């Protein structure tokens, strides 16, 4: 066949023993397939995440395989006409990419050529990339700040295969320090160094500026705008990290990514000076947050088990949202024009976020705030003491 439209993922030699299903996905789209799966076609240009879970041990008495709780995947960027060839490695039970431009191994060259020659017969068996509202959301709000340069900073190697238990660099460093204190012989530390890791920016809420007065220490603790300026001089990187951490969390159920996503939301919610002065940035952050919450599985936030690493601590989440409530109450304006138009748009998207949380998760932050305000009023009111006059 001729050059296929858009981009294509061509999968070679996928097979496994016994009955069962693969759980495949691209971006935030998921497909359950049998062992006959040839790939994905009509993929729009841009940045994407390919991910999968393999069948594992057979359930007792059913004779059926179950999908592993571990998910794997990797990022890739494609443009019009690209064909990404992926070959199933049954020995390691994982996929490996076969590259056209960097081929020096004759066997790999033959693998790539053979795969391309089989494209015509497999193309009709491929799954179409869904051309729906989810695609627009992915392109406009969920991944629009992510590019290969950002991924190289966060992953060291854009070819890195991530999974559910991939740790952050900060986690690995803490573990290596603990091993050092226990006089580890170095073998475990070397093993950690060889493992893939995610280079999220460490966020430390108790950190303060050096050489500051007592008043500044208090001010800097309560407002973290200075922290973002120092640790994220490039705000585009902060937005990208906010998107990457959420995607890793939702797709892989990756614990360190959940922690980073919540920490980023928290440090932003404590940066009133920045958000109130940089309205365009604030509008972008809220647009991303609204899109992310629309894709967050309900059981991750409410009704889940805290023993499950995917479950968010609801108390922590509510604290973050209450910070935003306090911050945005100063923008009590109607939608308007001129200089206040953007301020009105920010108010509108924040109200849409509140409505989404109430509708999808049963979390009514307006009612919660009203209840807390009443409690404060009762505490500040006069105390009536009953007495008897003799």
From TrEMBL:
Name of protein: A1 cistron-splicing factor Aar2p
PANTHER family linked: A1 CISTRON SPLICING FACTOR AAR2-RELATED, PROTEIN AAR2 HOMOLOG
Domain AAR2 C-terminal stretches: 200-366
Short name of one Pfam family: AAR2_1st
Domain AAR2 N-terminal: start-end pairs: 19-154
Family: Belongs to the AAR2 family.
Gene3D superfamilies xref list: 2.60.34.20, Aar2, C-terminal domain-like (1.25.40.550)
InterPro entries: AAR2, AAR2_C, AAR2_C_sf, Aar2_N, AAR2_N_sf
Gene Ontology process terms (BP): spliceosomal tri-snRNP complex assembly
Coiled coil: none
């Amino acid at each position: 066949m001729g050059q296929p439209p858009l981009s294509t993922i061509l999968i070679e030699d996928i097979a496994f023993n016994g009955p069962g299903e693969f759980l495949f996905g691209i971006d935030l789209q998921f497909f359950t397939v049998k062992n006959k799966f040839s790939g994905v076609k009509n993929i729009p240009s841009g940045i994407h995440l390919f991910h999968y879970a393999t069948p594992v041990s057979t359930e007792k008495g059913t004779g059926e395989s179950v999908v592993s709780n571990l998910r794997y995947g990797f990022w890739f960027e494609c443009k019009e006409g690209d064909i990404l060839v992926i070959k199933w490695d049954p020995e390691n039970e994982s996929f490996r990419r076969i590259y056209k431009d960097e081929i020096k191994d004759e066997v790999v060259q033959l693998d790539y050529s053979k795969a391309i020659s089989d494209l015509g017969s497999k193309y009709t068996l491929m799954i179409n990339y869904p051309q729906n509202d989810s695609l627009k959301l992915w392109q406009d709000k969920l991944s629009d700040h992510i590019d290969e340069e950002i991924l190289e900073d966060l992953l060291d190697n854009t070819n890195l295969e991530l999974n559910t238990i991939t740790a952050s660099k900060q986690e690995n460093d803490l573990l290596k320090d603990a091993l050092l204190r226990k006089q580890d012989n170095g073998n475990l530390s070397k093993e950690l160094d060889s493992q893939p890791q995610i280079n999220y920016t460490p966020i430390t809420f108790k950190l303060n500026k050096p050489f500051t007065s007592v008043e500044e220490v208090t001010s800097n603790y309560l407002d973290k705008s200075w922290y973002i300026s120092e640790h994220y001089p490039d705000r585009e990187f902060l937005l990208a990290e906010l998107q990457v951490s959420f995607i890793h969390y939702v797709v892989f159920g990756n614990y360190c990514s959940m922690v980073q996503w919540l920490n980023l939301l928290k440090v932003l919610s404590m940066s009133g000076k920045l958000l109130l002065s940089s309205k365009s940035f604030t509008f972008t952050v809220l647009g991303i947050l609204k899109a992310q919450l629309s894709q967050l599985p309900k059981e991750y936030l409410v009704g889940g088990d805290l023993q499950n690493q995917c479950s968010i601590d609801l108390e922590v989440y509510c604290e973050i949202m209450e910070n935003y409530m306090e911050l945005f109450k100063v923008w009590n304006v109607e939608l308007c024009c001129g200089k206040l138009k953007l301020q009105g748009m920010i108010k509108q998207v924040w109200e849409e976020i509140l409505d989404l949380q109430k509708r999808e998760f049963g979390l009514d932050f307006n009612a919660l705030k009203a209840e807390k305000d009443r409690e404060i009023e009762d505490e500040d009111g006069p105390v009536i003491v009953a007495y008897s006059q003799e």
